[in-house]
Amino acid sequence: MAGAIRILIVDDSALTRETLRRTLELDPRLKVVGEAKTGEESIELVRALSPDLVTMDLQMPGMGGLKAIEVIMRDRPTPIVVISERSSAGVVDYNYEAISRGALELVPKSSVFGQGPDDVRRFAERIRRLGEEGLTDDRPAPSSSPPSIPVTNEAPQLLGLGASTGGPRALSKFLTELSPDFPLPIVVVQHMAEDFFESFVRFLADSTRRRVVMGTADMPLVAGTICVAPPRQELFVRENLTVKLLNPPPGQLISPSVDSLFFSMATALKGRGLGVLMTGMGDDGAQGLLRMRRMGARTAVQDRVSCAVWGMPRAALEVGATDVALNVEKLAAWCTEMCKGMTPTPPPVASPPKKRRVLVVDDDHAALEFARTQLERAGYDAHTLDNPMMVAATLRRTPADLVLLESELVTVSGAVVAEALRKNGLGHIPLVLHSKLQGDKLKLRATECGVLGFVHKGDPTTIDLIRGLIGGPNRS
């Protein structure tokens, strides 16, 4: 790479800008060329300075970060890294909006501010790698073609997709290009900070108009549904096309990983899989895709021109995991061609669908009984728990599709319960406050807890909220 990576910092806080500048310039290969405190200023400075990358705050006076991202990506497309936290419940989902407007990456503020020197160095290293692998990668493409490997004649049973930096937009475009009656189940592994997964799943569902769900243990994989690997869990596929989830090995930095999905597809399905590796930083997925190819499966990667960051596809090409590199539209057409003549995979024959399970947590026994009755009348499988300290243990023993939590508990705060779930790898389970608080006090408590939604106890819209988050009473 010739010269340092030139960065524009956008944030309305002078202290934040100074902290970011000092953090980034720990690496001599990074250079801050300008600072802006409003969205309007950021647009002007992008035009004047042509930075290689922009770090963007979202909530600023005036135009704000969301509109600035939209204008920059329309007028002077520039990679934008949003530094944010989980969006507040009950208001605009800023992270969802940032993804939909074209942000390249979402980075948690907790990885930059208030952390130790190791976290700060990792953040600067991540920004540098974005520059080296995506923005200024002038290395030649692999020149030698991989050796020819026979492909099975058996029809594929599953499409596995892996992506990292730039993945949400690429995946959305790819899935939109697939025909509505695409005959295979689809599993997606997307590298993303845990706090942003819920926003990503909603974005993918809204932008593709397809059914997108977070993967759960033993979930059957069926055509018409896109399964997204949950945060801090490794997703494996069984031979009967059901999901197996395991905690990542100690010290593993990226979870979920694409390699876990691809290796399991190679083992369980042999050559009866399609594997596609898309834009992303690093080399996750390359070895798994190679294993799939050696088992006779059909494999492909996104090409250099259409990638936001070419690191992962390039790594796959270098090890000979595929000789097919196509842009997003052609990748979708290639997958369709691989399934030519197939009819959609029918759901596995099984017993009647299980009811969706809701765990209600409250230390008021009368409230527990009322909520249980309300949920069961609506067709849900309701479980109750009066000891908030046992929530994580209860969910590990009996998984639930949603947790309904009273925030004003006597023994422990709702925020402590929510944090305990995230620390125990259960943050993918939708969490809703069902509180005695009302109005602004309830909104504030929901923000402190970082939940997906909130309602006042006795609100008749409670069942509607639950139905909107996890669907009807039966699992499909």
The helical percent reads 25-40%
Multimer state? single chain
Radius of gyration: 23 Å
Q: Largest beta sheet, briefly?
A: 7 strands, parallel
What is the total number of structural domains?
Answer: 3
**Name of the CATH superfamily of the largest domain:** Methylesterase CheB, C-terminal domain
CATH architecture of the largest domain: 3-Layer(aba) Sandwich
Taking the alpha carbons of the first and last residues, their distance comes to 50 Å
Q: How much strand content do the residues show?
A: 15-25%
Q: Name the CATH class of the largest domain.
A: Alpha Beta
Shape: globular
Describe this entry's structure for a reader.
The chain has helices at 14-24, 39-49, 64-75, 94-101, 117-135, 167-177, 197-208, 258-269, 286-294, 311-318, 328-338, 365-377, 391-397, 414-423, 439-449, 462-470; strands at residues 5-10, 30-36, 53-56, 80-84, 105-108, 158-163, 186-190, 211-214, 225-228, 234-237, 243-246, 273-277, 298-302, 325-326, 357-361, 381-385, 402-405, 431-435, 453-456. The protein has 476 residues and is of the alpha/beta class. It folds into 3 domains: 5-135, 3-Layer(aba) Sandwich (Rossmann fold), CATH 3.40.50; 158-338, Rossmann fold (3-Layer(aba) Sandwich); 357-470, Response regulator (Rossmann fold, 3-Layer(aba) Sandwich), CATH 3.40.50. Helix 2 runs parallel beside helix 3 (64-75) and helix 14 runs parallel beside helix 15. The protein is globular. The protein starts with a strand and ends in a 6-residue tail after the last helix. The mean pLDDT is 85.
